[in-house]
């Protein structure tokens, strides 16, 4: 097969997807470099599953260009499929078959036979730590073990790119750690991994880069550290009665440790140069003007606060 050597394993440009009148992906562009773990972070309904299904060649895009390993998704899907492993959110396993037979089934779909198939099954079972359960029917597996087997199925044909849709949803903490370890091990072996999640601590810990998605758009894309840096010295949310807002906003902006401030209804959003001194200044200001503070929140510098800062929403319902 002709080999292409692209700069990016995934390159998405101006991707649009609609369901009827509803625009679910609204001009999404990003690229994923060889060997990185790339996270798509967003709340339910952000469009993550839609996006990953398009990358997995399961759903056609309406507009825009997608290149996977240099191949065009619209014209060269047949070349792309052997290069990617897709692990869907829903388990795609046969409960009455053993782990081994499930993997043999998926391996045959990719044309693996005989010793090559057996070797691959052993390799992927080792990789997800299920070799000693190879002969057991999947029905008898715990939820976490089924997820790990699902990942093994996505790896059976030795793809270059692994696409994982919410691999740790509904999984107990131990299996979650296992899955983390597998993902890190795969990266160490040179695999490129894109995965979706709405767990921000997970994305912060695991991903080289993260795209924050909401309502079909990418709002920010950077390393977790870079994204957290968007908060500067920290962000404070303060609530006061609406009648005080106009009076207060310009005074808040003039405080020495405040970098920027904006208001919506009763909420003041304050970007600080340093959260603690800014907090003291705010309290003094409100006291001096006799303005009651209805609520006050200092956002910890983490991805969750970045998300809240960018969207005004919490990532968790
Ligand atoms: N087949 C479909 N027909 C119509 N609308 C759909 C379809 N699939 C998804 N949607 C809508 O598209 C939007 C994005 O859904 P998607 O599943 O991609 O989001 P998500 O970020 O993966 O969320 P979740 O974590 O809940 O899966 C949602 O509003 C959803 O209702």
UniProtKB/TrEMBL annotation:
Location of the protein in the cell: Cell membrane
Residue stretches making up the ABC transporter domain: 10-240
Keyword terms: ATP-binding, Cell membrane, Membrane, Nucleotide-binding, Translocase, Transport
Membrane topology: Peripheral membrane protein
A GO cellular-component term linked to this record: plasma membrane
Top-level taxon in the UniProt lineage: Bacteria
Pfam families: ABC_tran
GO-annotated molecular function: ATP binding; ATP hydrolysis activity
Entries under InterPro entries matching the protein: AAA+_ATPase, ABC_transporter-like_ATP-bd, ABC_transporter-like_CS, DrrA, P-loop_NTPase
One Gene Ontology term from the biological process aspect of the record: doxorubicin transport
Family the entry assigns: Belongs to the ABC transporter superfamily. Drug exporter-1 (DrugE1) (TC 3.A.1.105) family.
Name this polypeptide is given: ABC-2 type transport system ATP-binding protein
Organism lineage string: Bacteria, Bacillati, Chloroflexota, Thermoflexia, Thermoflexales
